[in-house]
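Honest question from a wet-lab person: if I give you the sequences of every part of a complex, can you actually get the arrangement of the whole thing, not just the pieces? Trying it with mine:
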Amino acid sequence: MTALTERDVIATSGARAGRAGTDARGGRKRRRGIGGAITRWVGIAIVAVYCLAPFYWMLVSSFRTTNDIFSTSLLPTTWSLESYAQVFSGSNDFGRSLLNSLIVAGTTTILALVLGIFAAYAIARLKFRFKTAILAVIIATSMFPGIAVVVPLLRLFTDIGWINTYQAMIVPSLSFAIPLAVWNLTTFMKQLPHDLEQAAMIDGCTKWQAFTRILLPLAAPGVFTTAILTFIHSWNEFIIALSMANDPAIQTATVAISKFTGASDFQAPFGAQMAAGVVVTIPLMIVVLIFQRRIVDGLTAGATK
Amino acid sequence: MTTTIASQAAPPPPADLPRKKRKEDRAPREGGLASLLLSPTFVVLLLVILYPLLSALYQSLFAAESGLDADGFVVEGESFVGLGNYLDIFAGAESGRFYNALWNTTFFTFVTVGLETVIGVAFAVAMNRAFRGRAFLRAAILIPWAIPTAVSGLLWRWIFQSNGIANDLLNTQILWTAEGFAAQAAVFIAEIWKTAPFIGLLVLAGMQLIPEEVYEAAKLDGANAWKQFVSITLPLVRPALLVAVLFRLLDALRMFDLPFVLIGPRKTSVETLSILAWDESNQLQYGAASAFAIILLVYVAVIAFVFIRVLGADVIGDADARAEKKAARAQKKAARAEKESAR
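Yes, you can. This is the full assembly:
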């Protein structure tokens, strides 16, 4: 068990060291026959096609012309940015929705992180009673179905005139963002060696200084990972934004896409929807590709510890 | 000098006393700091969880009314109906819609999570072997997860168009996004596509913690690949798998975005409890909507309880804490025994 925690610490504080460990294991595995190699590559191919084919279809469709949209060729016959132009013009005005998403998801993430850091520090590093119960309560709240939060808050926000405001979307979003942040940060902070702060305090730091100067910088990768995960969750949020805003000027991107209207009422504007889908997904994808190791660490931290 | 003598004369040696006191003090003092640090989180959770919960419970006892009074004026208001909303839901005119939504929710949850688990574990096995393409695979797997559910709903709606790519590839003319079993199948496929890789990821993480030596020993004993999988991999990966499946179950039970965007609201074959509650609140039937939300909440809680208590999913690292406590207790006992034997 100690060996595991050590490896986890290495993996979080210096990703490269962790990777070297896996490579060593890989080396041992590579000594298999040709049959093994074929199965392996077939496996990779299946997984990759499964995950990427639908996204590929969205990407390709977004570059087709309106006339060509129902073509099922693997590549567009004529490449066109028509759909993208449609997304950002006229009644759709998607740029505004992207900004709204950024404001809502960004604020939610920052608030959840600030509160989450304090709570996680307490749970991971301090000794007090009912700790397990408190952590259990926080995790239990994350299992709350969104609709159970939305219905009563919708009523409340209608009464106090909060409908079509950012706070009406940010406050309910905290119901899933805070438990997520606390849980993730707790796992990260638990992995840091336990006598760090004590050593700092012996050297004359106050508890607060030990926290801000020693622990927080060390936990920074964990904080960063948690920020990415929380942001992605909030960015993808749908039911709260759908219920709390009906004014297109304040709608978030996910809701706006689902309400796109086309030239005629009978035909859903698929080209524009696919283009908007690509626009919403690309920033996430870049983040995912750059920080994939961190994200996987964050996602699996809870499951494996 | 005198103080030393005086203190030595005192019955409990004071040199010992401050240290002992400090040790006893430490827990409550950290408790104070802990409650200070935890209180903002709890204040927010009270506002966004406890208040809605209590409000929903209260609201579910009222029903919206609109009718004409004796003078023929339209009266709108709410009246206390006690458990009337719940009675209506379980036995009244609305009950058909409720049982349908309950069945859909249950059916969707168990089918999707079941298939996701099988596919996810298969993916994990494939990835556990693939060491070269590991980084590429991990990135590929994160893409369905990162695409917003609402967007993936649209994506699959596009794929399942009557003259779309799915019908083209399968050479059929199925109306996937209309109603009936085809619509349910479309929801299954889209949901499984999005989340099976995620289960694969969590299970893979669990698999990587299994030491290679275990497999080598099994190989020496002549266990084939399948046997190794069934009697080593599965049992050792069980904790990670249980947590992954629990999370997926709770997430699937509140399914909303995908059927809502892919098929649409008010479609019998894909209406889940979340969509039903949303639809009721959209029509200002807050009482009924709250009752639906409460029923869903209880359903989710029951499933979580079963998973954590009966199957032993260890969500909060309770096993670790318990082991630590046990070790601490054993240490204390040993120390006491030593002390006693020294006497």
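Two things worth pointing out. The first strand of chain B starts at residue 62 and ends at 68. Chain B touches chain A through 106 residues (CB under 8 Å).
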